[in-house]
Amino acid sequence: MAQFQYVITDKKGIRREDRLRASNLDIAMQTLSKKGYKVVSLREIKATAAATALPPIHEQITTFIQKVQNHIPLSVLVFFTRQLSTMFSAGLTIEKSITNLMVEEKNHRFRKILAKVGNDIKKGMGLSDAFALSPGVFDGLYVALVHAGEVSGSLHVILEELSDYLEVMSDTRQKVISALSYPIFVAIFMSVIVAGLLLFVVPQFAEIYAKFGARLPGPTRALVTLSQIVSTNFVLVLLVTIGSVVAGWFASMTEKGGRVFDTIMLHFPVFGLLVQNSLMNRFAKTFGILLGSGVPVLESLSHVQKVVRNRVLVDALETSKMLIRDGYAISVALKKTDVFPPTLIQLIATGEETGEMDKLLDKAAYFYAKQVDAIVERLTSLIEPLMIVSIGAVVCSIIVVIYLPIFKLGMALQRGL
């Protein structure tokens, strides 16, 4: 006897989910239908459970390489998803829809992927299974939602919602990137200026001071020593810097290193609040669209874990899943983790009472998207002058230290006069 996970709505329209045992999928469907339930989702529980946490390093690197090799602009994926929804709702078969879209596709990389998907469908493979063979293009959430649409018979509706979801997530990500990119650019620009001063300006002054044989002030001696180290070992310093960045990137993929990195990101001054609101927006939007598509709660949370890609949230969601299995309500389970904000918890609790969890999660996502907008707007107005002041302070400090012996010589001459 196989075990099946189902999501149904009863005669009163209340959503329920549970498990049952049956010989096959058809018998399970008949069992639920005879009881007067409307089946939203029904799927067999495999013997081997999928991993819920972030994948190992080698899988992350493999997926990253696939994304680089098969880079598909998000706008192309969104347009494809909308067109597929339109064609399917118009009565075309999936195979015919994929073939038509492949012929019209201008992106040669995506055309090859669609050709592969079309061939897999011709061999009898389901659409979600065919998408799953290209994880660098169609991620786990995309595949899960398509599978939910196939099972529930509302594939065209879910594809349309998926298009909207991708656009919203892209917009939020761009806002976060725009807020973080400017300070990163300024930091790199500042590093180049400091390196230029240490490599070209400071050595010239050091030669002039060496000719006089005078004893330099402490700060100037330290700066000259640093300049000599950088000039003599520039290649080594550059390699160490690049190696440190690469090592940090690899460390962020490990469980312990990634957890430390993600914790710092969540509690970093100013930017931490931006990251938190962005994650809550992603959590609410993803969880809502999965529940609305008929995906069971625990399976939805497993997919959300892979989407948020923050180990602090991944651990909190894993704890929540254990509590939900023990009979706790979703809102109570999330509250016990002390990670999710009270506003989100309250909206989820209201959703559990009214049976409109997906709608209230969508409202929560909208709320946090507005929070992201407000933070980005504030950061944009504050960061630019702060960065300019920071660059000026660093450059001025170096110049003052360089000219410190001249200043002291001038003061000594004044005292002599």
Protein architecture, described:
This protein folds into 3 domains: 2-44; 71-169, Up-down Bundle (Receptor-associated Protein), CATH 1.20.81.30; 172-417, Type II secretion system (T2SS), domain F (Receptor-associated Protein, Up-down Bundle). The chain is 76% helix and 6% strand. Strands 2-1-3 form a 3-stranded antiparallel sheet. It has 417 residues and is mainly alpha-helical. The protein has helices at 25-34, 57-69, 74-89, 94-104, 108-122, 127-132, 140-152, 155-212, 218-232, 234-253, 255-267, 271-292, 297-308, 311-325, 330-336, 342-354, 357-416, and strands spanning 2-9, 15-22, 38-44. The protein has 17 helices and 3 strands. It is elongated, with a radius of gyration of 29 Å.
Under CATH, the homologous superfamily of the largest domain reads: Type II secretion system (T2SS), domain F
Q: Can you write the helix and strand succession as a string?
A: EEHEHHHHHHHHHHHHHHHH
CATH fold-level topology of the largest domain: Receptor-associated Protein
As a whole number of angstroms, the C-alpha radius of gyration is: 29 Å
- How far is the N terminus from the C terminus? 104 Å
Oligomer category: single chain
